[in-house]
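Attaching the record inline, Q. Sequence:
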Amino acid sequence: MSAAVAIQPTTTSRQEVEDLIHAYVQCIDDGDLEAWPDFFADDCLYKVIPRENVDLGLPVSVMFCDSKGMLRDRIVALRKANIYAPHFYRHLVSNTRILGEQAGVITAQTNYGVFQTLLDGETRVYNTGKYLDKIVRVNGHLRFREKLCIFDTNRIQTLMVTPI
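Structure, as predicted:
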């Protein structure tokens, strides 16, 4: 029996995927939301959906965007039309598990927790769940083709305007 450890063929991809996810949450946490759509392929799907709906096969989600254009519209609405309490997000994400790769599409799962701080300085757990991502390479860069934010939290305490 050999003591050698097999090198996983996804090692590089895992690091690249984790770098993508960390850059994604940093973009949101730093309020650089105009750059947020650039993490996605042009033809993409973004959903924030309760776990209960996923378990029951119900399609209703809290946020739904099926193109990069819709993602950009969402940010324009957030900046210019929505009325909400100013807040800051801070994400914590787990290590990423690569679930597979087929025809250039990497499927990955990452758990997340989002803390929200309002201007009064109080911080609370806002949303927790998991990302289920389908990731593709576009012009040499990894981009989300599909990002499902499946949350465990039973209720959303305030209007969800900022992406998860």
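The longest helix spans residues 11-29. Residues 45 and 66 are 4 Å apart (CA to CA).

More tomorrow.
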